[in-house]
Amino acid sequence: AQRVTQPEKLLSVFKGAPVELKCNYSYSGSPELFWYVQYSRQRLQLLLRHISRESIKGFTADLNKGETSFHLKKPFAQEEDSAMYYCALDTSNTGKLIFGQGTTLQVKP
Amino acid sequence: DGGITQSPKYLFRKEGQNVTLSCEQNLNHDAMYWYRQDPGQGLRLIYYSQIVNDFQKGDIAEGYSVSREKKESFPLTVTSAQKNPTAFYLCATSPGTGGQYFGPGTRLTVT
């Protein structure tokens, strides 16, 4: 079955520390993967697409097909990065997404 | 994302009453989605529609109903059959590829 797994419900780091939010997916075809972020009192918004291979707010994510992973990384966490992060998978090229359970990132001062 | 509106922001209802949540978009996207978000459970898909006058059940459709009479609108009715309706409801749209765009959400409380 197609699935997205985010193994950590909560990730707590100190400001300036590196961050890695894990995402593993289960899909045998060519996936399209996304990271979404939800800051407090704001709507869920797209952070990254693997196709774009861009860096947004210092975050990057690389698709590793061998490990079926799409981990989100940032070398130096900032307090404003504190939010809920969701990894999502599109298997049908229709826009219908399969979401992971989400990881709350807490960056402490 | 300002092109997707959900109203109201907060909604309170008594148990046993049906309630309809509004979702409107001006992005000209064909596909629209409804999710509920509960603490610790992520986003769960309720219903989705990929074209006007057509919609499909998601993972947790029981106790909910939708309609898609216009491209711009995808209202969700939470019926009295929904056993645990108190939640945060999110509407999203998609142009077909490239991910989804979300509305601000409606927090429904049923007592």
Any overview of this molecule?
The complex is a heterodimer of chains A (109) and B (111). Chain A is mainly β and 109 residues long. Chain A is built from no helices and eleven strands. By secondary structure, chain B is an all-beta fold. Chain B contains no helices and eleven strands. In chain B, strands 2, 4, 5, 6, 9, 10 and 11 form a seven-stranded mixed beta sheet that branches. The radius of gyration of chain B is 13 Å and the shape is globular. At the A-B interface, strand 5, strand 6 and strand 9 of A face strand 5, strand 9 and strand 10 of B.
- Cα-atom radius of gyration of chain A: 13 Å
The proportion of residues in beta strands of chain A is: 35-45%
Largest interface: A-B, 21 and 23 residues
Beta strand % of chain B: over 45%
Q: How many β strands of chain A by DSSP?
A: 11
The H-and-E topology of chain B, N to C, reads as EEEEEEEEEEE
Tell how many strands the DSSP assignment of chain B holds.
11
Write down the overall geometry of chain B: globular
Task: For the record, give the distance between the C-alpha atoms at the N and C termini of chain A, rounded to a whole number.
Answer: 40 Å
Biggest sheet architecture of chain A: 6 strands, mixed
Count of runs of 4 or more consecutive helical residues of chain B = 0
Residues in helix, % of chain B = under 10%
Distinct helical segment count of chain A: 0
Beginning-to-end CA distance, first to last residue of chain B: 31 Å
Main pleated-sheet profile of chain B = 7 strands, mixed
Approximate helicity band of chain A: under 10%
Low-confidence stretches of chain A: none
The multimeric state of the shown protein is heterodimer
